[in-house]
Amino acid sequence: MSKSIYDVSIWQARPTKLAILVPCRENVYSLFTSALVELVKTTTMAGIDVHVIYDQSTILLSQREKLAKEAIRMNADYALWLDSDMLFPSTTAMRLMGHNVDVVCGNYMKRSIPLQTVAYEERGDWDSWVPLEPDEELKEVEGIGMGCMMMKTEILKKIEPPFFEFEYYDDDWHGEDFYFQKKLREAGHTIWVDMNLSRQIYHVGQWAFGHTINANDEKILKNHIEAEKENEVNTKKTVKQTKSKVEHDGPTVIEKVSGVPKIKKVAKKVTRKKADAE
Fold it and tell me: What fold, for 8-203?
């Protein structure tokens, strides 16, 4: 019988201090808060010493830099980066730590068109994004958004700060997350993705609902199809009634006006026979 994730004994060989790092503004999504509470509870019940650290300053580069240095200062064994618009399972931290690699992430969808994920096999090739498909094996990537990233804090001590910068690379601007991961790879670390966990991670956001929503186009098409079917049924019904009337009253002519059958009565011809002269 397999042990429960709440059984501390299965984590005895794991590091015990986890820093959850959250860059944010004044407000965070309620769905994120709910998920974070459950994650902290589940991870704490497994015997992990959990610390949640927020930074609400206005410059993202500064936020990430301060959070990384705080994880080092408190001597955390692991640092879990979470964006405040993410939704994730309560077992996320333990599943990522369980891989025992330097850096492992959860992949997720972007919140904008085109709808694709934030993980790329090749940095700068935006067509190389990694879809959310099940796979027991970890997948290596060159770049990924840091909305759900677990790392061993010790690797930060081997990288020269600043850790985060914007960078103009290959005729395009790259975010602070890709710059940081470039430094990690240059230091010999691999960026891994937990493919199965990624299918349980959601990117929370808002939509401006309008005519471009797929459901709207689908409804328009459905209405057109139903209207065509109704016209076809009415046409068949009219033809059937006309045939019945012909059989009862005599010949008729069917004229089409703008594609709609119209019944026109044909007057019976009356041949007057000249009366024979008596």
Answer: Spore Coat Polysaccharide Biosynthesis Protein SpsA; Chain A (3.90.550)
